[in-house]
Protein 1
Amino acid sequence: MLTGPSLLVLDDDPGVVAFLSESLGERGFRVEGFASPPEALERVAVQPFDLVITDVRMPGMRETDIVEAVLERRPEQLVLLMTAFGSIDLAVAAVRAGACDFIAKPFKIEALEFAIERALKDREMRREIVRLRSRLPEGDAASPLVSRSPAMTAVVQTALRVADLDSIVLLTGETGTGKGAVARFIHESGARRRRPLQHVNCASIPPTLIESELFGVRRGAFTDAREDRVGAFVAAEDGTLFLDEIGELPLETQAKLLHVLESGRVRPLGASHELPLRARVVAATNRPLERLLREGLFRPDLYYRLNVIRIEIPPLRERREDILPLVDLVVARLGERQSRPVVGVSAAARRRLIAYSWPGNVRELANILERAIALCDHDTLLPEDLDFPSSGGGIDALLSESARSSIPLAELERLYVRRVLESHGGNKSSAAKVLGIDRRTLYRRLNGAPGGESED
């Protein structure tokens, strides 16, 4: 008895239904085939399937009627469309109506199997969204704590191990990688989660005010000090103080911060006595502190005091397994926040998102998706909805450079296939699935000619 994913196949040609049912059944799928739309829709209404595969044109039905009819009976159902080559525009309209992807006829059964696997992977990502949204703090459109990639899994595991320690944690990484979210994750994963989390961005506070912001001030300490003010160290009592962009601190303030961290006591400006330091400190920087040391812009003693437990947050281009789960999470949150009807991202748009290099990391991903959701007038994001900077180094840069250099189409295809392969760490099976081709075709296109290298 077959125990694989369940499929419903619908086509008005009984021969096609029989062929697909037999072929997919031989590949381990549980298949129910129908040549009658009313019978198929009746079955969908009472039985959920992992995937519905249907021809886009059905007798007596117009354009996107079949997709809309399936989703009306079962809104969460994934629908994969089969369409003749001349009906691509119709298939795009059906994707906008809620289908997850389409495949053009005629196709090989291997290509359909790849499309099915992509659709089922999409279903698993949607399920993961529910789990992630129950874990992650509200407020951010995206969180880098989606951790399918080994690099991000290591970050999360380290963060969990240090959550209940008193040791200082130093978070490093490029702008937009999500250091603030990791700091919040550390805070909320430990015993301090019911106590305050104070966030101080050292780059956004004028040098003349940073000390009063951190340490507090007593009335009369200077001209504008008209009342006592509690500093961040005291406000974070028994909680966590997150010092963001700590590489921007003035040298004079660095010396005073070092004293606080070494002594465990903090003295507000103008005060005659010190207060005990009871907050756990997490610091972050997107600037290489080692270089600042060499340039005399950061104190060595403070650097060594901060660099107790260091966690490097990887850039998004080095954790590509996390891109699509992040995309789904961002789309779900932004769609809910903006009251927009966007419910998903088309397969073509997903491929474009994977191919992009993301120089701005998770923050850039959230910004691009926010713009797309705000401006699109349909419920599934398409490639044309995504506005990438032309200098981003992804597929946009490749196309731009190809146009300037008049690269032949065959060479452009080879370059694109190689770019996708590189983005998947050289994993040919993974790259082939994203491209919608088999491994043999991948080899041929990498070599720019039929045949190519062997698969051995």
Protein 2
Amino acid sequence: MKIGLIQKFPGSHREDNIRRGVKHLEEAAREGVDLVAFAELAFDPFFPRKPATGDVTRLAEVIPGPTTDIFARKARELGIIVVLNLFESDGERTYDASPVIDSDGTLLGVTRMIHIADYENFYEKDYYTPGNRWVHVYHTSAAKVGVAICYDRHYPEYMRALGVEGAELVVVPQAGTAGEWPSGLFEAELQVACFQNGYFGALVNRVGREGDMEFSGESFITSPEGSVLTRAPAGKEHTLIADLDLSRVADSPARRMFLRDRRPEIY
């Protein structure tokens, strides 16, 4: 299958951001892409960079709703799978959420971020309720797809659960800044997760300056053997496209040995 990661800078007007997102989706479809993924809060400012004031539900949206309706129509028209990331409103609670839309326009489900960060420039506990849904793998038209939203990727037990559930590809919508962690650590972390669990990883990051934060871009794709297959440039808008040979999943060390030989009754 062929995937595309949309690494773009969100402007200040949401409607324009969505129009641009649709345009990038159409461009990727012309390249023969089967699945397109967007970065964390791809159509909005990064709200958590400042502590919340007032009712944050005014910033959020329902799922399904206007944004998912737009992308569901385009997914059906183009025959392409779409992984979004939105600030979701559900009653009085709000979530960092990734809807997954299949190539026929069906909303297969919504993954909510489970682990919530809270430190300088990432005041996420002010905005997000911890996700309350079991780790889910979506059986799309092209692959079995899991989602690990930003902070969730730091938890080996979450990444292992996606492998146990049979994910062939794990999409990671991220908002990561330049120099946030030691050089190469983000890549190394996902490389290890893919090697240990036997799936492809696709991290798609925000890019550009917002206030005092500089989102780095540098989206990348890793293999089930733990290698980095390709990466996007730092500090630039870019659509990263790659062909993934899904037969490598079944032949990976994790699927041939590691998952087979687990002993969860002991640990």
